[in-house]
Amino acid sequence: MTSPTILMVPGLRDHVADHWQTLLEARLPNARSVPPLEHDKLSCDARVAALDKALAAIEGPVMLVAHSAGVMITVHWAQKHHRPIHAALLATPADLESPMPAGYPTMDTLRDHGWLPIPRTNLPFPTILASSNNDPLCSAPRAATLANDWGSLLFELGDVGHLNPAAGYGPWPMAETLIQSLL
Questions:
Q1: If DSSP codes are grouped into helix, strand and coil, which group holds residue 147?
Q2: Which residue ranges form the domains of the chain, and what is each CATH number?
């Protein structure tokens, strides 16, 4: 069997040089990323279309590695499209149905841009949802509920914040371990 292409699905902040997804993509020979949007950056439909376009450019099996709102992009994509996906790592999802901290879009803005409601059906491919005990964007109980709704295996990471550079994460070696477990 051909080894899957790893497709990174970043969140709303797109590509950040010292983010674990960017660093992981550079280390893996068969990895690429959904390109950042130039227009309609808050549009869920535009983000889903960008993911679909990136997938269309890949032949063979694909594994998705999504972070934050990238998890929600992946979940919305799975409701509308039927391309086979080998598996997905869903890392520290952003709970868009709960008020976000200052500096993030409001729930009204998210609703107006198509993010709400969050799809609640089982995903049609194997998934691991990696959650944090102290994530300011998604509580651990809420992450457990989402994992259950989506049919994901829940992997509790401990106190890693939102698993981003602000929480002290550039490299995240555990990502490669979780990816290997999905192969």
A1: helix
A2: 5-182 (3.40.50.1820)
